[in-house]
Amino acid sequence: MKKALILALVVLILAPAVFANGGDEKEAGPASVLNWNLGSAGPKTLDPGLNGASDGGDVGNNLYEGLVREQAGIVHPGMAESWELSDGGKTITFKLRDAKWSDGSKLTAGDFEYSWKRAMDPATASEYSWIWEYTNVVGAQEAAEGEGSLEDVGIRAIDDKTLELKLKNPTDYFVSLMSFYHFHPVKKSAVEAGPDGIWASDPELSVSNGPFILTSYTIGEGLVMEKNSNYWNADNVKVDVINVAFIDVASTAYQAYKNGEFDFLSDVPPAEIPRLVAENPEYYIFPLLGTYYYNFNMDLEMWQDVRVRRALTLGIDREKMTEIQGKGSIPAAGFVPPGFVDNKGKDFFETAGTYGIPTDASGVAEAKKLLAEAGYPNGEGFPKFTLMYNTSEGHQQIAEMVQEMWKTNLGIECDLENQEWAVFQDTRTQGDYEAARGGWLTDFMDPMGLLAIFQTGNSYNDPNYNNAEYDALVSKANQTVGAEHYEALYAAQDILMTELPIVPVYHYTDDLLSSPQVKNWSRSVLGTLDFSTASIER
After folding, report:
1. Per-residue pLDDT for 522 more than 50?
2. In the CATH scheme, what is the homologous superfamily, with its name and number, of domain 65-185?
3. Is 279 a residue whose pLDDT tops 90?
4. Maximum pairwise Cα distance, the chain
């Protein structure tokens, strides 16, 4: 951590002499520099087609741009100047603007066709290829699952500036989904210049199309982005340099922020939150469409009895955990958070109800009864297991509370283990755990963006949950609209919360610290940071 902090300090000292896209101090004047701590030990990848994590998405959203750019819930034209729907909403035609890659070459509709077909190609092995099912693009799901040809996918570059999409069904959220980082374009020659995914983190190979370019990357320490003079809207990009540090100890980063070494923090120490909420106008809290939960590894014998899974779900006090956090998180008794409006204009979260899961400690008596019925009175005889989380003071705090609650309330003991973020992602995906932290933010404005991850075979189905009826309901929701769509989603969540392959804990809020010197920064309604319109006033 000291090494990372020293790097951030050195970069900060040198930054005024750095100028995006060339120039010297006499001609250009001091650069406008933003110093940002990402709040993790670094993205697993910056390749848009391979990335599946929010830290990589935050960086990628500033290096790349999709057909549209979403800020605060408003969809703005990005690489596409306009679009139109025809054939009852089953054909969408995007008209691209005159745009260039960061190396000065022309960006075309063919680049999007290449990028998207690469992302869904099983040979690419993208963790996010599953999302193509929910785009409803003709042939995309079949291609992603290796059961169809890329040639049959309904994505076609008609000419350099016209991209045509053929959908199986009208999909209301399709255009807004195109702002998501998985759908950012990549340049074929850059991808082929290095090993899969590596090119995107190599400043010598990286080519992007967004407001910034990658100019430095040091694993475990940080990266530097500079203004992209070839970005179509470069005249409105006011920040010249963004220094990004990879410090995953929130208290260390917070101290550096107080010392003026950072302008922006993506993670805040839990212990500081009550004071920040009460006193500091630089502290921001936003609702997030996502859920914090724990996975049971459903491949293990210890989790096969649903009474055990429900007992552990009932054996924690969610209100106590969210109160200690102090940032407005909402206790979760289901998986879909507040903020999704159904076909009747009602909030999905409120309509779905609590499934008999109290948000306080009043479920402990039922939990004890269930454990006794399962053959573990007062937890006796239940094997000790390990609860795993990725390194973070906030995750540690919650895990320690859950550990204590299960022991005190149910007599069940577990050890805690933390892993660095990149390692933890692989550990979960490979099923090399007993119980593990999970967290999911939707990628589009529909409850299906959350519930779909527990379908059989989904790359993010970390508990390895398998239920044919659940799979069928989510697939039905993907093929329907209106009442039929939401009836399927409500029924799917009913099954998930009856079977409980997960322990829902709370629904997210997003908290950030931003210096008052940073103006006009933005974020998407899904939480992705955007510095394309930001400015610095020193």
Report:
1. yes
2. Dipeptide-binding Protein; Domain 1 (3.90.76.10)
3. no
4. 78
